[in-house]
Task: structure prediction
Amino acid sequence: MERKEQWCCPECNNKRPKQGNINTPVRNISTFKESSQDGHTTVVTKQKLDDNITQRTKLRAQQSATVHTPTTRDHTNLEQLRDFMISELKLHLKARVSDLENSLPQNILALEDTITQLSSKISEQEQAFLSNDI
Result:
């Protein structure tokens, strides 16, 4: 009987503020009142509620304070690195070009031999075709 007297319809129950679960990770309230079964009301402060909330604003402020600004020394180091990379690339490109220039005549000779062989095969097939016609 006592349970029936305490029952409240879901629509009416939705209008009441939620109670009882202080371990939820997100709270936008600075204080939260919780009533216990014996009628006493306890107040939980925002500090206790924020234990489950990750606050990234402090982290962003620390990161923005440690942003590295480029200096003249950094520019000098970058220029030296760039100059070194350019010189190394030029050396490698010169070596590659000379290798290609050295191998080019050999490749041309191989292509000429292939062309000669193919032309002789074509002439043989033409003669065979002509002899079959006669």
